[in-house]
Amino acid sequence: MTPAPARPAPRVPALYVTEVRHTRSAPVRYRLRHRTYLWLVDVDDLPVLPLSLIHISERAG
Asked: One short Pfam family name for this protein (predicted)?
């Protein structure tokens, strides 16, 4: 038996557009759909922010 070929590692950093969905059926039926983003990064090799973006990230946090 031959082993399955290894999958290539994902290219990072990457931005994924995602959608979170939730449905509640009781006591009142309610559905939620929220679009959001997820970052995939290598925590051992984090990207460095350009100086022009550092001030923006400080205000956001």
From this structure: DUF1365
Whether residue 9 is contained in a domain is answered as: no
User: Token match 């956001």: residue?
Assistant: 60
Q: Over 15-50, what HEC string results?
A: EEEEEEEEEECCCCCEEEEEEEEEEECCCCCCCCCC
Beta bridge partners of residue 35, listed in sequence order: 19
Structurally, the chain folds into a number of domains equal to: 1
> pLDDT, tens digit, for every residue of 2-59?
888 888 877 888 899 999 999 999 999 999 999 999 988 888 888 777 777 767 656 5
The range of the structural domain enclosing residue 33 comes to: 14-60
